[in-house]
Input
Amino acid sequence: MTTKRKFTLSKKGLLMLAIATATAGAYGQEQAEDESEQVERAPAQTEVIEVRGYRGSLFNSSAAKRESQGFVDEVFADDIGKMPSQNLAESLSRIPGVKINRDVTGEGQQISVRGLGPSFTKIALNGNSIAIASDGSLGSGNRNREVDLDIFPTELFSSLAVSKTATASQLEGGVSGFVNMRTARPFDAGEDGFKYSLEGAYGDLREEINPRYSFMYKKTGEEFGVLIGVAGANTKSRVDGYEAVSLFTDGCTAQWDNPEHSASSCVDGSQGLNHFFWSPEATADYAAAHPGVNVGDAVDPVATSGLDAETLDTALLPYLGRPMFTYGDRDRVSGLVSFQYRPGDNLDMALDIMYADASKDFVRTEAMWWGRRNYLHQGAAIIPEDVTVDSNGYVQSGTFYNSHIWVGSHDYQEDLSFLSVMPNVEWQATSLLNVKASASFTKSEFDRDEPYALYMSPSGTMTFENGEVPSFNFSEDPASPDIGWTWQQEYDQNGDGEIAADEKFGDMFRIQRNHRETETKGLHLDFEYGEAPDYNGFKFGIAWDENSSNMRSFGGTAEFTENNVIGSDAYNNFADYLGPSLVNDLGNSISGYSGYTGIAQIDWARLKEATDYNNFDAIEQAGDQFGQTVGDITEEVLGLYLEANAETEIADRNLRMNMGVRWVSTDQNVATTESETNASYDKLLPSFSVVYDVAEDVKLRASASRSLTRANPSDMFPNASWGGSGIESVNAGNPYLSPFEATNFDIGGEWYFSDLGYVGLTYFEKEVTGFTRSDSVTVPFTELPTYGMDITSIGADREQALLECGGPSQCTTVVNTRNNIDGSTTLSGFEAVWVMPLDFIVEGMGFNASATTIKQDASDEEAIITGISEWSYNATAFYENEAFQTRLTLYHQDGAASYYSQGKEVFSFDRTQVDLSASYQLPVSYDMTVTFDAYNLTNEPVGNWHEYSGIAFDAFYPGTTYTLGLRGAF
Output
């Protein structure tokens, strides 16, 4: 600890800090004070100190927490690279009540506050609305109000503030919380000059070095300052994993439907889901393994399985269970330019411009066990042998003859851009009136081209063994391109020795392209009246915001297949377009995995050239590859607020109060390619908070507020789309859904036993309404046009499904839509935090820890909130001296119900991640520090169980990443 001008510990100095960061972060308008102004405004007798490094960040957070009005937590970055995180999502994870949603790479991507999902948290940049057009985690799509934070590097930000209950001056939109990300500015504390960091990150799965870098230059004069920052990374990633599709399912014994053996189905009386078929006839591999048995001989699959008929009929296997891997590169670069002009004490002008660009070029390859519609008449039904089933009906092991591996390979090309321009001015018009005006514009675009090729192995014998994830072993090596792969399942139905066009089954190629664009505009005018309006005075203002999100999806699979695939060299000589697996140790990082270790890989460059893929004009579609409607949504929002602050004394102790009300009017326009609707509503959102100094270092807080989050756009698109590749279901939206609303109560407090250390405990309760029910109705196929469906052109797969169920007059479809329900859900829980310096043991040592527990009480089962971890906690132990710093951080989240599949609960793994960060300042005459970081030391997976622990639904293992770097300044 050294005596140096940074900020003061006096009440006045802490007030300046709170105005510049905590309160300002929530309101998004206050500007940071430079060092000279902070000192000038501090009392002459005050000690001015600086604490560097991680302790400095904790010190600033503790000070801001002490002076905050409501329930606000803040994370500071007092220097480039000193936040022990890969991006802003992870930086926020140490705040109690904040939960990270991770990509399959293990990197933090989105945050949730107090149990509710990412869409319920309002994310602001310098107090202004933003939206990111990115698509979320692999295999999903951001369709609501989520904001991916993984494009924002910590180096370009000065603070992150999380307000868990609303105040009138905050932008509305976050039922669960309000997060303001404050970018760095020239007049922030710190010396002028150039700062840099250069790192090499080594991922133990990919076994390559990934470069990372950041640079920042700051120059300030008496009136004008400029700050320029750039941060980027090239990540060579690999993730091994396993996943099932949609549900676990059972099969039935097959029988021929006609003498020609051109159709087959379940035997009469079969029970269960019956999504795949057991063969009643000996296959070639079964006959070879059983002397005396010939191909085509009658086989009783019940007898061969070793199970009774009922158990086999309902035994559950993963639906298209598949080991998989992703392999490729991700490039990311973000830049910040900030200009600040202060011609005098009463005027502060700033212009913040931020840009981010990210791209992905990677392959995802998955080897599915073909257990879906594997019809007997297509030569694909399987024979079970020596099958074991647990007490819940899930298959644990077995041998399965005539199995096929159905490989799907995606070639991802993604581009994401983000631009924000935010000018603002603060003018102290009189000694009592302060005026703030700001404008904002953000635009983000995202393009994904994801062609998907599928190819089939010859039949063989599969052994299955359940474990942390299932292990599949095949009689042929799936990593080899020379085992007889075909583009489709080929089966000589008529026995003439040739494969005709109608004896090839299954998809070959899918066109999947998506474009998204988001845009936000805002104009805010805020007034503060009083000598210290954050303590005694009034605030009032007006905010206009317009937010839009446009989603487009493009396909044309049938047209591309007919015109570009069939007849091409790739179609006629498909095996020539396969090469060896990109990885030869698939599953090596998965505990207990003993399945195949590679997947023959398609040569994407040659395949695209052979089919003239790059010149194909994709056709705009009403829905995307996830079966979801796409379209546009625009919201124009007008908000007015009035807020009052008062400070007094009770029993010689200080009491601060904040009360206010925000009126907000929302006009929504929701449109698809076929229809358009408009909706409007007004809401009144009151808020109140109080903080009382029970003792000199003990604060008691309480607050109450109303907050809202507008309905999910994905539920609002007015027309319908197919729910999958068949005709089983249709999804239809409701553009008139009401917003989610919450009534929030908090009570808690902290004891500050030192300048750095404190303990705090908060009880919170949140009653949320506005949930929607998925209403389903079964209708004849011929009535689907009344729901906006075009049934005249449904594609080859759906035509086949229609034929199999008896034709249009016999088939039915389930229509799924959503409506608001009257029920509510009450979330309640506790948050605890402990920041503890241990200088009395070893100077420079300490720890900080926080924990959150949440429970819910839903008045209607449709209002049950998924994704709530009952317990989450994190802890960081640290040690620092003049030259050396080290931190060991543990993050834990209990598993939680993620969603439901066919009425079964899918719930996330319990997850405990351990990270290590260390740095050493070199003993040289200039500022230079060596850094070392290790993320996910225990290779914790990201994944879900299906109904029961031990039945993996999906699991992704990103491995451990080690980073060695050099940081300095001059």
User: Anything to note?
Assistant: Confidence is low (pLDDT under 50) at residues 1-51.
